[in-house]
Amino acid sequence: MASITQLEYVVALDQCRHFGRAAGQCHVSQPTLSAQLRKLEEELGVVLFDRNKQPILPTEDGKAFIEQAKVVLTEFKRFSLLGNRSADELSGEFRLAVIPTIAPYLMPLFLGKFTTRYPRIELAIEEMSTERIIETLDKDQIDAGILATPLGLSRVEEEPLFYEPFFLYVGPGHRLLKSSKVSESMLDPTELWLPSEEHCLRQQVVDVCGGDERGGCFPSVHLKGGSIETLVEMVSRGEGYTLLPQLAAASVARRKFEGKVLPITRPAPAREVSLVHRRGHLKQSMLKLLRVSIESGLPRELPREKSRDFRVVELVGHFR
């Protein structure tokens, strides 16, 4: 019968597709991991991995075994957590990923209070793209993500936290600078600076403003790695404009750039921001604490519920 350790080795090798990296993930030597997997295959009478392929790939028998191994490991973790819950419920690691267009504006709103109130929860936070967050959730490498939704994926649970209407940021001397608000029909996509391609915010901005997927307002410029901060600096120099979610727009307004943040007429385009995790996730108590902490730190003017004042720009169909 396969041991829990052997099942962990199998799943790690499926994730890494490389013996050395899988051994490192499991904190054992490569010969140890290789020997245990070979022993397991001999006991089962099947070959789980095709070692002649690069990267290493599971066989057809291996694929079925790996899926069952994931189920067994999940239930084993659930059993362990149930045993420790009453004594040490609010301790342990929680792995959280946040998309870069949200992280710098949201983290300062709740992180200090959360760590002070729950010092025994080790919160490991990493910035990731939406695609990467989905991938690491599927592999059980993180516990939750904070990102724009809805994604339309049945395998994950989305818990909306708030809604961010988009604002227009225009530079000094721009024709719209004297306006008090703008309508979407006034936006010219040839003047638009777009976020980098790995940001889901890019697709939302294109959906709002139209046009193609160029990276800036100069025909010969294709901007790669464009963060919100980069876009704001480009616009502040007097070229074009960009769309900013509400938390980023508020940050820009506080720093008193030479440009101007303008609201968009109702119903303004907006993005939904959610706490996303796998269905039936084990760390429900920590998820709840995290959500309550985030919501309590949000500014009052940030919408918590859907409203006729804005329309959500959806991401359904862009991710699998």
**Number of alpha- plus pi-helical segments:** 10
- The helicity comes to 40-55%
Order of helices and strands: HHHEEHEHEHEEHHEHEEHE
User: What is the global morphology?
Assistant: elongated
The CATH homology group name of the largest domain: Periplasmic binding protein-like II
- The Rg value, from CA coordinates, equals 23 Å
In percent, how much strand structure appears in the residues? 15-25%
Number of β-strand runs: 10
Q: SS-based structural class?
A: alpha/beta
What is the CATH architecture term of the largest domain? Answer: 3-Layer(aba) Sandwich
Terminal-residue CA separation: 35 Å
Mean of residue pLDDT?
83
**Overall number of domains:** 3
CATH class of the largest domain: Alpha Beta
Which residues sit in consecutive blocks of at least 5 with pLDDT less than 50?
Answer: 83-88
Largest sheet: 8 strands, mixed
Q: Might you state the CATH topology name of the largest domain?
A: D-Maltodextrin-Binding Protein, domain 2
